[in-house]
DUF3558 domain-containing protein
Amino acid sequence: MSAHTPRALRLRIGVGLAAALVLLGGAGLLAWWNTDILGQDRFCGDALPSSDVSAVLGGPGRLAQSGLYEESDPYYSFSCKVQRTSKFVGGDQPLLEAELSFDKADFGLGASRLWKNASASSYFIGGATGAVSQTQAWVLLPTGCAKEVRPASQQAEIPVLKMNLTRGRSNPAALARAALATAQHVAAGLGCTDTNALKMPARLQGPVDDTNPAVLCGMKGFQLPEAALVKGKAEPGTAHVTGRGSRTRVCDIVLQGPGEPRISLAVSDDPAVTKAVRRDETATQGSGRTVTACASGDLYVGVSFNDAYRDVLLDQGKDAYETARSALFTSFQHAAGKDYGCPPTDGE
């Protein structure tokens, strides 16, 4: 403005500029509070790029790391939390949690209170061994790494990267990418040198429809033995099974009866699963988990129940329970063996 500009006009221009600055400042704060502009590039100790986190935690709000624990002395530990925060969106925002855990290799393949509906997950094909749903993912990490051993460790337990999404849902492919990126970071922290074990899967194999009672769980000739059924309490129901693309397949049979009694069946010729289960001395037919040596490699077979089905069987008496459990395992083991070209011997 020149010295000859009228005072009233100068005042109006000054007020206008001040208002514009206020609006720009407000817009900047709005963008800062409700988007990831100028936010972090990586999270969880550089394990996760912000693009991977954003793909999982969709929606408005700003990505914020709400917790990270990563230590290497005297042994390696890892856990991390990332969530959306917003001053404009009410209620709890989506939260992504990742942790290094030690568990049995088949922990996610059977009936579990925390890892439910294994047949509803998508299993990795090619690359790493793992599974993912819209809210959970797990990846088996290499064993025998330099910093794997810890106090009270058990031979049957192997390192696993677990990821859990609460208060939201994600595209499984996006959650799988985040889990793999974190698994690679954690494996490096454990001192693992086998980089081939944690490659990104070529694709995911999800569940398929299974409505043919003559090919229950997608295995020709497999049927529930009569000993496994209880009239009015555990009658034939619906089977849900994953497709044949993955080396690990899971079938959940939801029976008709109070409390939705459920039988979970799993079979795998994935070496990451079979080798780890072989380390477990409790993996026997009596426990519903075995590994059989086949001409083409080992074959894992697992059978487990939820509490509702276990209670139904136990109500019939301990002998009836053992008979049903044994008949069910034997029937599935034989069907899986034939399906994989590895029929069990008479002694198995």
User: Anything to note?
Assistant: Residues 18-34 have pLDDT under 50 and may be disordered. The CA atoms of residues 26 and 32 lie 10 Å apart.
